[in-house]
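Input sequence (134 aa), recorded before submission:
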Amino acid sequence: MRVPKRRVIPISATSEAIEAALAAATAIDNKKGLDIALLDVSELLVVTDVFVIASGTSNRHVRTLADEVEGMLKAELSRQVLRREGRDHLRWVLLDYGDLVVHVFDKETRDYYQLERLWADAPVIEFEPASAEA
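Predicted structure, token format:
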């Protein structure tokens, strides 16, 4: 029986964008964010290199996750958010850092927009949540 070859797509995002994405994912994981995904969209979009996508369990949790990302990236990497959207309704908060865009959703909104499916051609950047290591 012949096993089909898995298509391996190399990561092409900049190391700075990957470092920031991993820091953002860690910040989200530290506050119990769910279903964290990192996608290298650098070959698919001209406006950014990496998407971090995660979910919170409530509006308050979505706000906490977004605040934690901003605090971590500022403290650890001296990065300032360029633009933030969605802080009014807290169903989908978007943090734009130029080469990195962080999307924090509530579950219903994430299920509706399905960004991972929309960007299914993007290579996945490996991230192992601390909760999975335990």
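Checked by second reader. The domain at 15-127 is CATH 3.30.460.10 (Beta Polymerase; domain 2).
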